[in-house]
Amino acid sequence: MIKEIALKKMEQYFNKDKKRINHAKKVTDFALEILGAENTQNLFFLKVVTLAAVFHDIGIHEAEKKYGSSAGKYQEIEGPAIARRILEGMHIEEEVINRVCYIIGGHHTESKIDNIDFKIIWDADLLVNISEENIHLDRERVSKIILKSFKTESGKKLAKKLYLSNQ
Ligand SMILES: [Fe+2]
């Protein structure tokens, strides 16, 4: 239920930006798949992972407007306040909002990753970006990313299945 409402709010916010909407949806699907595969299911993580995935790039339009750039660091600056406003409107608990905003505010900064919920968002975003940026065409590069950048075992497994298996 929270997921459906969040997706609707995200789509409204991104208006007609299909590219961002589809990206967020794909990241959300992967994030929930990874969460399901990791042994960390509790309601707090389920809410945080769902909401952080849906809204992780929510600062991108504001970043483009203010700084003329969609670079990660500007998204990190702009995203949390926008997410907080939307999440407060959804009557999400303060504790969940704070955690979601922390993740959104650091989702391009590896050194800020501090727990499994953040690792899941990191891996889900990476999984989607590999195909959106056509990195999957270069299997060697994908192998390196799997070795060096993925944070969860389930994320690594998914990446191998999606991008390195021979079918
Ligand atoms: Fe993303």
Describe the structure.
- It is a single chain.
- The chain is mainly α and 167 residues long.
- The protein has one domain: Hypothetical protein af1432 (Orthogonal Bundle).
- Helix content is 73%, strand content 0%.
- It has nine helices and no strands.
- It has helices at residues 2-14, 18-37, 43-55, 60-67, 72-89, 94-104, 116-132, 139-148, 153-164.
- Helix 1 (2-14) packs parallel to helix 3 and helix 8 (139-148) runs antiparallel to helix 9 (153-164).
- The longest helix is centred in the N-terminal third of the chain and has 20 residues, at 18-37.
- It is globular, with a radius of gyration of 15 Å.
- Fe (ii) ion binds at residues 23, 27, 56-57, 125.
SSE order and pairing:
Layout lengths: L1 H13 L3 H20 L5 H13 L4 H8 L4 H18 L4 H11 L11 H17 L6 H10 L4 H12 L3
Helix pairs in contact: 1-2, 1-3, 2-3, 2-7, 3-6, 3-7, 4-5, 5-6, 7-9, 8-9
Bound molecules: fe (ii) ion.
